[in-house]
Amino acid sequence: MSTVTVTSRIGLSSPEESKAVLKVSDLVVEYHTARGIAQAVNGVTFTVHAGEKLAIVGESGCGKTATLLAALRLLPSPPSKTVRGSVEVDGTDLMTLGPKALNEIRGRDISIVFQDALSAFNPVLTVGRQISEGVRQQRKLSKAAAHELAVDMLARVGVPDPDQRAKQYPHQLSGGMRQRAMIAMALAGEPKVLFADEPTTALDVTVQAQILDLVRSFKDLAIVWVSHDLGVVAGLADRVIVMYSGFVVEEGPVEDIFHSPKHPYTAALLRSIPRTDEMSGTHELVSIPGSPPDLVALPAGCPFYDRCAVRVDRCATDRPTLERVGDTQTVACWVAQAKDIAS
Amino acid sequence: MGVTMQSPDPKTIRLMTVDQNSSTPASRARGLLVAARTSARSLDFGYYIGLLIIVAWAVIATTAYLWVPFHPTEYQDVANRLAAPSATNIFGTDELGRDVFSRVMAGAQLSLPIALLTVAIAGVVGSVIGAISGFVGGMVDELIMRVCDVILSFPAIVLALAIVAALGPNWFNVVASISLVMWPEYCRLMRSQVLSIRTNLHVTAAISVGCSPTRVFSKHVLPYGLPAIMVKATVDLGMVILITAGLSFIGVGVTPPTPEWGAMVSAAQTRIDSWWLVVFPGLAILSTVLAFNFVGDGLRDKLDPQLRGGNAKGASAKSMLQRIFLGQRKTKETPA
Amino acid sequence: MSSELLVVEDLSVHFKVSTGTRTSKKVVKAVDRVSFSVGRGETLGIVGESGCGKSTTGYAIQGLVKRQSGNIRIGDRELGKGLGRDRQLLSRRVQMVFQDPTSSLNAKMTVGQILTEPLAVHNIVPPRERAERVGELLEMVGMPRSSALRFPHEFSGGQRQRIGIARALAVEPELIICDEPTAALDVSVRAQVLNLLRRLQKERGLSLIFISHDVSAVTHMADRIMVMYLGRAVEVLPRAALLNRSAHPYTQALLSAVPVPDPLVEKNRERILLRGDVPSPINPPSGCVFRTRCPIAQEICAIDVPKQRVIGKEAEGQTVACHFAEEVREGGIAALAASSLLAPSTMKETA
Ligand SMILES: Nc1ncnc2c1ncn2[C@@H]1O[C@H](COP(=O)(O)OP(=O)(O)OP(=O)(O)O)[C@@H](O)[C@H]1O
Ligand SMILES: Nc1ncnc2c1ncn2[C@@H]1O[C@H](COP(=O)(O)OP(=O)(O)OP(=O)(O)O)[C@@H](O)[C@H]1O
Ligand code: SF4
Ligand SMILES: [Mg+2]
Ligand SMILES: [Mg+2]
User: What family is this (chain A) (predicted)?
Assistant: First the structure.
């Protein structure tokens, strides 16, 4: 691993375009609660290549946020505990780094934006100062240079009148502008990978559309975008990971996930949402009965077993692992895997 | 990089309160264990101990004169004055040779009713005025709040003292004065409760279902505001005993020779070497105050269905009483 | 028209809000001169972004907030302006389902007590038969009868919302106002509630007002759709017209901003991006409230308030509040903005 680190750090000798910039393997996160141990993230593994947009979708509570935060080692502990897993950014494993080295990598190589921009900003510092602060420390910039950087970043994310805005405080910006400013803050250190935890969920759709447009314009940036909105994912992602109760249940290119979902959960989810572009108001939506399992007492077999329409006996007892199904997708479902072998 | 932590979201709480049916035997066992632990905590040892002490004192208060070894006031054995605890006088005797044990037991007859009555008056009056204040609002609210401010700006004990001193020292005036000092606290608490509960969505829903204002208030606002009032009341019961003791201590409380705990402690102030004169009535006060505090704490949990787990009883006064005194029966989970 | 169950004319609801300093009070025109109607058995969807006055419209119909002006007629009965007066009567005919199923149910009452309440308040069912009726209501929304003995917190979000729907059904109302009934629910549970509402409506011939900021949910549910922006109804149109016959720039922009869960559609989409955010309702723009973000706004838009007027044939039931509605309906906003005909005027900066 270490040799790879060196070469990619320098940025040389990466013949194939799709260089992996982030490798998360077997991430396991637990929460210690009054009721017992909640298994929030169960062996999540994924790779992100340079410039790739990876989306993680799943319902509320399926462990999307926990995955991102744990990967950046930002989860407060206790109550959480990152039990195992490795997170390699350009070959450096974040899990083994000391606090100082970790701080250096965060912001410079990898960075994150949140859903609630207002609480992510310090209310008593100007926006400009916060945008440039991390970089200023790392690169020992002068005050003027830092301000210039902040203004430049704000302009890049499409904030009108950036010089003025940089001098304002977070609460003086509108919701959409604040979200842009947070993206500017995350991008100030020129990271290779950006984590985005539902940054548009709290916004109005017309403002969301602006932000999505902005993000789509970052061609070279690798992004891990977390969302529960399948529409947003469809318009943004190259590849999609579907999570369910802390497990990755399906992964594949966005077209394949949306047009030929292999996991029964993905398929049901896609048919449960109404669409604006087809005025088929008469058809029934598919609803998934029941609710996700209790993370404190995960079933021994497939976590989706209780709600699954195509389940077989084996699903109750054996937990399916992620296997390749078809040419491009990996799926954790016994039935889907069996079908694939049969065909 | 200025990355900020996200605060844990409400879902976490949901995860911890909604009990889902566990499936594997191991997890079920673990679930039971957790349930046992939490129910042990919420059933609260202290609550039952407290309840036991209060019931004991109530029995003593009503029956003391029937069984105490010596008459609390009339029996005086001056030859045997200031005797240390012995087989005949297990709590010793006071400066007139009266039996301290008998007097402490009989003292419950006055100390407990004073406390209960005071809190009841202050609680009911305060809550009603506070509820009106919160519900009506405007000038009425403003006026009531200013009156409360004025009363609350005096130290409670000093104000009570002044009132009793003016009215004359007897137990009824003690009750009157302390309730007068206390009701603004209930008033404020109730008002703030009403103000916040009123904006709850379930109240809007009740109005939209067609409930009359009185029904909205009694069924949808009061049950949410009452637990806080009841908890405060139980805590205050102990407090009132202490204030009564304080008044008696200064000499404006209950008049001698009537046995009353506070008065007994105060009378003993000049006789430090006769420790039993202070310790036994003092213990009586302490045990009651503690008991009421325990019960108050326990009540808060008992009155909240969310903390309590399933129970087929609703918010009626009867079921509340049942809940308070019988604890709760665990109802079977019916799968939905 | 006799087939209309609810007719709302020129409804305005204003709130006084304090702005920082203690003395200065400003007026928020949460709903401003909105007119619409709901037919029997029809679903009207109300859609718009946060703070545009959707909930307030619903609350005003239900008499939960005081209206500044305007008339509300249910059947042939005109509703009084006061809050209390028509309460009792109104709540028999109009019921509401709220956004947050957790806080809209009294946590201290059992589900049975919650469902009995409307029956008791209106004295519809004799006391002895109420338990039976509660059971029926629960079954109607797909919950076991035994739920009556349990407390709301023992149920999942979707189940709680079904309890809320059962409560609304208890008085057998003619109209149910659903204020974002699925906003607090998970994706996979949302469909359950939407399907239930549609089934109940069909079975009982109910009228629905379905309020949501989720355009796709509204288009799925509604026969007609009212689009709101900053307290105004900018357009009311039949569902079928939404895709290609909408006549207001905001309607078109809104629709174009809604992501479609299909990567191919998304890739080839032409998007209309609006500038900036929704202005503050305390200080709305002069003239047309949408003009600060409108891609085709002209000078007249800053001066004249466009009236809500019928466009196309009367029978189509489309009304719109835009000076250039005909052009927008014909040409589409994207093309218009690009052409010189209605090019953006000079008064705005580019975002
Ligand atoms: N502090 C905590 N204590 C206990 N459990 C927690 C805590 N924080 C999160 N969890 C649990 O961990 C699981 C994963 O949470 P996470 O926040 O990652 O979900 P998510 O997929 O991001 O959901 P959402 O879409 O709601 O943001 C959830 O089931 C949650 O209840
Ligand atoms: N009680 C109130 N006092 C003062 N202002 C209010 C009150 N209720 C609503 N408003 C204001 O009126 C406007 C419309 O609010 P309303 O709740 O109707 O919007 P909405 O469309 O339902 O939004 P959302 O999608 O966020 O629910 C908002 O600007 C809001 O701040
Ligand atoms: S064209 Fe004018 S009236 Fe029509 S929406 Fe735009 S700003 Fe409003
Ligand atoms: Mg999250
Ligand atoms: Mg609303």
Answer: Belongs to the ABC transporter superfamily.
Q: Residue B288: what are its φ and ψ, rounded to 5°? A: -70, -45
Size of chain C, expressed as the number of residues it contains: 351
Q: Which residues contact C159 (CB under 8 A, 6 or more apart)?
A: B336, C143, C147
Report strand pairing: A110-113 vs A193-197: parallel
Mapped onto helix, strand or coil, the DSSP state of residue C310 is strand
Query: What is the C-alpha separation between C57 and C106, in angstroms, rounded?
Result: 24
A39 and A30 in contact (C-beta within 8 Å)? Answer: yes
Q: Do C274 and A210 touch (CB under 8 A)?
A: yes
Chain A positions touching C191 (Cβ under 8 A) are 272-273, 285-288
CA of B8 to the centre of ligand 1 (A): 7
The ipTM is 0.85
CA of C51 to the centre of ligand 5 (A): 7
Asked whether the predicted pLDDT for residue B323 surpasses 70, the reply is no
Verify whether ligand 2 is closer than 6 Å to residue C283 (CB atom).
Answer: no
Place of tokens 């109404």: A274
H-type alpha helices, chain C = 54-61, 87-93, 111-121, 130-140, 157-169, 187-204, 215-221, 239-242, 249-257, 263-267, 299-303, 325-331, 333-338
Taking the C-alpha atoms of residue A64 and residue A224, their distance in angstroms, rounded to an integer, is 11
SS3 A321: coil
- The contacts of residue B277 (CB under 8 Å, 6+ apart) are B92, B94, B100, B264, B267, B268, B271
Give residue for tokens 């922006």: C229
**Shortest Cα distance, chain C CAs vs residue A281, angstroms:** 5
C-alpha B301/C-alpha C280 separation (Å) is 43
What's the residue count for chain A?
A: 343
Domain extents in chain C: 38-67+80-229, 247-350
CB-CB under 8 Å, A291 with C220: no
Cis? peptide before B259, omega within 30° of 0:
no
Element (H, E) at B120: helix B100-136
CA torsion angle B127 B132 B134 B137 (round to 10): -160
Q: Which of A240, A286, A199, A205 is nearest to A57 (CA)?
A: A240
Taking contacts as CB-CB distances below 8 angstroms, the residues of chain A near B4 are 114, 119-122
Distance (Å, rounded) from C-alpha B261 to C-alpha B246? 10
For ligand 1, atom 9: residue with the closest CA = B12
Number of H helices, E strands in chain A: 14, 12
Whether the pLDDT of residue A238 is over 90: the answer is yes
Residues with CB under 6 A from ligand 3: C 248-250, 288, 290-291, 294, 296-297, 301, 306, 322-324
The letter for the amino acid at B231 is V
| Contact (Cβ atoms closer than 8 angstroms) between residue C233 and residue A290 | no
Q: Whose CA is nearest to atom 1 of ligand 3?
A: C297
What's the CA-to-centroid distance between C157 and ligand 4, angstroms? 17
Read off the pLDDT of residues C205-224 as tens digits, 9 standing for 90 and up.
Answer: 999 999 999 998 999 999 99
Point out the ligand 3 atom lying closest to the alpha carbon of residue C288: 8
Tens of pLDDT, residues C81-117: 766 656 777 888 999 999 888 899 998 899 999 999 9
**CA pair distance A118, A116, nearest whole angstrom:** 6
Supply the pTM of this predicted model: 0.81
Interface of A with B in 173-192 (CB under 8 A): 185-186, 188-189
CA dist C301 and B88 (Å) reads 101
CA of C28, nearest ligand number: 2
Q: Which of A156, A172, A205, A279 to mutate to test the interface with C (most CBs of C within 10 A)?
A: A205
Tokens of C26: 């400003």
The second-level CATH assignment, the architecture, of B44-78+107-302 is Orthogonal Bundle (1.10)
